[in-house]
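Tutorial handout. Part one gives the primary structure; part two gives the three-dimensional structure as tokens.
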Amino acid sequence: MELRLQTHRLWLGLTPEELQGLASGETLMEVVFFGGSRRLLYELTPSSVYPETTAVLEDGHITVIIPQSKVVAWMENSMPTLSASQMVSTDGDMLTIVLEKM
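Part two.
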């Protein structure tokens, strides 16, 4: 799984194997080490509980939660991307979350 960050945008690229695992209920996780105990951990988790795609950042850990039903539907169609937006401030700033088939 590949991560790209841009102003107000979080992008995750998935291989066909990763997409299949995600559709089967597996959590995908990657870690980038910065030396010492510093690291950035990011994960993509399917959920049968969350109705919308959601991203959370806490203590150097990015978690993206996506409804499993959306993953299965996306895997079965030819659309190259799946995207969602979430409000991240009271000023109306939005974070766009993009998943792309690689």
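Part three, for discussion. The mean pLDDT is 95. The radius of gyration is 14 Å.
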